[in-house]
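Hi,

I'm pasting everything inline rather than attaching a file, because the server keeps stripping attachments. The sequence lines come first, and each chain or strand is labelled.
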Amino acid sequence: MRLCAIAAAGIVISIAGCQAGKKTEDRLAHEGDPSKTGKKYVIGMSQCNRGEPWRVQMDKDIEEAAKAHPDLEVLFKDAQNKAETQQSQVREFVQQKVDLIIISPKEARPLTRPVEEAMDAGIPVIVLDRKVEGDKYTCFIGADNVKIGREAGKFLVELLGGKGNVVELKGLMTSTPGQERHKGFMEGIAGSNLKVVFDADCQWLEPNAQREMKSALSRFPTIDAVYGHNDPSAHGAYLAARQEGKGREKTIKFVGIDALPHEGVRYVKDGILTATFQYPTGGQEAIENALKILKGEKVEKNITLGTRRFTKDNAETGGEAL
Ligand code: FRU
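And the predicted assembly:
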């Protein structure tokens, strides 16, 4: 009896499994291959927020890359930095039966389940920049945040001659880039006499970083460097030092991550940041790989993007690849 039930369940599961694959076949048979009929593949893009310049750039990069392909249509949703909103938006895309989802999740844990549900519904998912938990997604695209953090650490060790007091203004620590940029940095300064004397989770936001830096400045008479997990954080720290009115914005070395041309790289050229490390948005790569997936080609499960270091010496000439 029990065996029968297990066998029956197995049949139901395998029928369901076939149907997921059959759905795409049916659609192709019914509508024709969109790339040949001129019909569009619909991609749902779930952006965790459009309040930060780097994310506006990511959406722009996706839009630009998609423009070159008349058979693609991208629907953008902005979750306004709320994980619950992003969960429902992913579920809406599933209900709408888009052909593929790209997601740049706010936080790993709350977005893991909605991504799994999309996969269960037979919709491929590209995870961009921040990760989800586990491996139930089609492909992850992003730069190596551990490496970037490590490079930032090594850079400061050299810059400060192996010793000094550092303030670390972290990104949202429930998102993977925050965790990885911290881990890498600790590896980069390991064995030196650089000490992190103050750290805070600034959730990637400049006003938070400015506020936290204000309290770091009031507690520590000697601060040699600030490691901001992104350029807005490093810039917020600079503003706090300037506001303090003791001229410490000129002695403290500020280092950030992102290197948008009109943000971090600008700050480096203006002498506000000593360095910024590029964090590519991956927008173009997301579209390239989405097309491959939609056409049934295989893609790598993990696609790692490179980074570049920008300092005053090389900012005009496009930085240096690491
Ligand atoms: C924008 C941002 C970037 C950062 C990235 C990490 O939301 O905070 O500044 O590099 O997210 O996911």
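The chain is about 50% helix and 20% strand.

If the labels don't parse on your end, tell me and I'll reformat.
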